[in-house]
Amino acid sequence: MTQALRHDAMRARNLALVLAAVGARESVTRAALAEMTGLTKTTVSKLVGDLIEGGLVVETGAVRDGERGRPGVEIRISGQHVAALGLEVNVDYLAVCVVDLARTVRLRRTQAVDNRAAPPVDVIARLGDLASAVVDEAVENGLRVVGGVLAVPGPVDMTSGVVHNAPNLGWRDVPLASLLRFPFPVRVENEANLAALGELWFGSGLPDFLHVSGEIGIGAGLVVRGRLFRGAHGFAGELGHVVVSPDGPPCRCGGRGCLEQYAGQDALLTAARAAASVRPAPVPPAAAPGNPPGGMPPREDAGKAGETDKSRETRTSEETGTSGEPREPSSSPEMLLPAQQGVAWVLSRLQEGDADARAACERAAWALGVALSSAVNLVDPDAIVLGGIYAPLFPWIGHMVADTLKDRLGQMRGAVPPVVVSRLGAEAAALGAAGQVIEQVMADPAALLHT
Amino acid sequence: MTQALRHDAMRARNLALVLAAVGARESVTRAALAEMTGLTKTTVSKLVGDLIEGGLVVETGAVRDGERGRPGVEIRISGQHVAALGLEVNVDYLAVCVVDLARTVRLRRTQAVDNRAAPPVDVIARLGDLASAVVDEAVENGLRVVGGVLAVPGPVDMTSGVVHNAPNLGWRDVPLASLLRFPFPVRVENEANLAALGELWFGSGLPDFLHVSGEIGIGAGLVVRGRLFRGAHGFAGELGHVVVSPDGPPCRCGGRGCLEQYAGQDALLTAARAAASVRPAPVPPAAAPGNPPGGMPPREDAGKAGETDKSRETRTSEETGTSGEPREPSSSPEMLLPAQQGVAWVLSRLQEGDADARAACERAAWALGVALSSAVNLVDPDAIVLGGIYAPLFPWIGHMVADTLKDRLGQMRGAVPPVVVSRLGAEAAALGAAGQVIEQVMADPAALLHT
Ligand SMILES: [Zn+2]
Ligand SMILES: [Zn+2]
Where is the composition biased (Basic and acidic residues) (chains A, B) (predicted)? Predict the structure, then answer.
């Protein structure tokens, strides 16, 4: 290693060290940073100067007594310059959001659209329009979007950006990375992984959990001590294809009796409709996650998730409006997309006390409990967070999932992981995507600064 | 942080840095160490002096041209002083081994004994005698045993050393750590975790794999990029209780249809005997792992595991004899322990072409394939290594496990992880236990040196 290279590497490492120390507190003085990092005050002052110049940290102007020695100016992460773009393509919606370096959600848009009907290039073009609009608005607000991550519902080769197989979208070997046109790098990652990271950074605040993304497919993301577990090839967390019953219904993965065949959105809907007539039921607006449906959930304690209230604060700290694009295809009940109609329809049936809907949820919850008992035995999570469609369904399924887990695990394990609801619902993946860009900036700020 | 504390912390970190650099190569000069670590030659010389004094590294005496500048003395990890003790209690045997800092296995002993019959305190006393004998012999050879790890077949609270539940031993809340009496620290850990680490350090040399320990219970250890995945509470890898069929036979864990009920040693034996008469069959000596049984395995390629040949070299580099204690209880066929008799008996039946034994293996292999397909979906390992009783059974079950995995995973995943055999067999856990002590010394050599 040459002297110059060694110097650059050390500067990059020290910049990250100082930025992490700033991020670890609400605000901090240069003297405290020297204490925290073990660097000299002179070095810290130089590095803080570089970070201020790059717009990553900001002096608050507030002056107070330093813990040691003379008063110092407080420094904090700047939310005014650097920002990240989160994007998601899912089966029945597109989502984008902009998050600033202080982790405040600045902008978000979702668009209901059936992406199974369109070729990938059209889906990406539509997503690009949605994203360009929020990026333009971010720029008007003085933000500089430095990178993005795109969430897709299927395993992704993270080095090439190729989506090998997103069966619910009908995508196979789609070179997604090469279809994206942005003036900043955009990586592609699995939706379930990013939803778990969204839950970590913008949701419950738990450091160890398995997050379950219920959509048409079912993915999971395992977070261990604040880090996502990806497996050897980045394909971990395919909970939807964990075996519930080895001779059960055939699955699109080639297996039989996978969880998706019992608890995926389509399976749930089919089961709920099995005995019901096909007459269109009145469809209320889809219940927002965090606003449990008005009907009587089967248990008083079913909505237990008080510890996830922080996610509401994150949302209300948003500086710009949350009004999305007009949801053209869903402007009237008749025009609802099949999937949306599905969950809303199931919810309305549950609220009416419909026995078939209840039975379908019981079956799905039992299957979730069986698959999750295998997951707990294998990966030992500290908690289970139910997200996606399971968030609005939580009052009906949560306690049944927990009961099945207790039946199957309680005897050998002292404590069975609690089953809680995600308050982020369908937004989790896009938020996790943006959060991942923020993480990357925090880990290597030198890459953003002119060296 | 005071100046003195800061200096000690930096010295400890630099000692570990230099020791790791020495360990990364066969041998290395001080000049090369300065290059590799970024430390000055003066600092490196001081640290190497401390490591030599502590017996952790040694000058080989060989002198050759340095890569840069003048010739230097080569330094390597010393195998002559510091050593580690590995211990294992399993259902039907005890095992101990001594491994030196250069990772050479110096001593090993196993003792066949039915530990289900004895209270924990007696089992530990017997293990203590076995261990004291090898520690004494190690001391006679000039070694200093600095620590030990004990493998037990069940989840362990690693902070307290309490074994909550080892159902196959009949142990519940046993304060194992407090029963151990050694003049050095001995920690307790799950057998399946340690067997995976044994495979990592002394077996295949693969960096990413799921190691399956088939015993009366079935555990698994997941290694990702050379590190063991433990889960939130250290209870990950309970493959034996992954659901194969949700309404299958009841399991001691409280669940139903767990893998252990289809592929555990007792289940396999019961199935193999189901239709066979109870007359005692002639029992050959248990086939050593690595020496496939003489009979005709069903496929020519079934024994594929050429890449694990390194483990043989590790074994042959042993300096002291491998002769164990006399296996009193198993000195004659009639006296074989039930479990040993079981696998040996199944092997002999397979070699004779017995249809019932074949069918029992088919059922076990199918169940292993089903449970492993769930595991691959959840944790995405790069390879699957079958150890414990599955090592001698591999020629009969390996291809069937692989076929079931391919059927269930092949359509969605580009590559299904290969299924290979462990060459360590029942020794894996004790070797992993000793290896873990070595890892700890490498990570924090300062703790061993007089500061
Ligand atoms: Zn499937
Ligand atoms: Zn079980």
Answer: 298-318
